[in-house]
């Protein structure tokens, strides 16, 4: 019988800024003898690995699709059979739109012990970095994390049901489908005028924030040539950014007087 791995770690690498990672994640990276990592993992985070650790990229190759999930599952099992400690490093949090559940299931079926180390999901990182709270007593008491990526033969009906009053909706992987999403959400008239913020490459030096209204979000994304990875935040809470800008201006004026 092949030697079974002591442990497989599913490690959250955080939203992008290499300092937004937990001490526990760093310890697991240091311990791992082989690490499989995604395209959203900042290369700086891999510097925590030991020099002899085998690093395996399983993200998108230029102009190609990502490695299929089934293949990643197989690769994980292969490495875990070879090494006593294997790390699976994923952008953000492994259990938020990261297919972490599928990997846990596959590894569990193969008899490995698994530890999941949470990471800061990109929605939290993005909000904090631009001083945008995702909940606020005045604007929003509910947060919805939703994906714009539909399963084969799926549709966007799930968006039609949303009344966004007093809610903050954060769309992951929403760029491609934004036209359909906008159309569905705007079927409720009171949603249409809600403010939106689109955050590209959140928490990284190249971060870009673009703001507008839900009813023209598709055009805005096109005009600004927003590229992945990007998050779309919709809800009254986005107007908090105006409030903070106003306060900053007022304070700057007082200081100059
Ligand atoms: N597990 C990850 C999400 C993976 S899905 C997490 O918890 O954040 C990939 C999507 O996440 C991207 O398409 C994008 O919508 C979002 N995302 C991840 N990193 C991002 C970043 N630095 N800036 C903006 N969006 C990001």
Structure overview:
There is one protein chain. The chain is of the alpha/beta class and 257 residues long. Helix content is 33%, strand content 21%. It has ten helices and ten strands. The strands form two sheets. It has a five-stranded parallel beta sheet with strand order 3-2-4-1-5, with helices on both faces. Strands 6-7-10-8-9 form a five-stranded mixed beta sheet, with helices on both faces. The longest helix is centred in the last third of the chain and has 17 residues, at 240-256. It is globular. The termini are far apart. The structure holds S-adenosyl-L-homocysteine.
Task: Provide the descriptors you would attach to this structure in a database record.
257 residues, alpha/beta, five-stranded parallel beta sheet, five-stranded mixed beta sheet, 10 helices, binds S-adenosyl-L-homocysteine
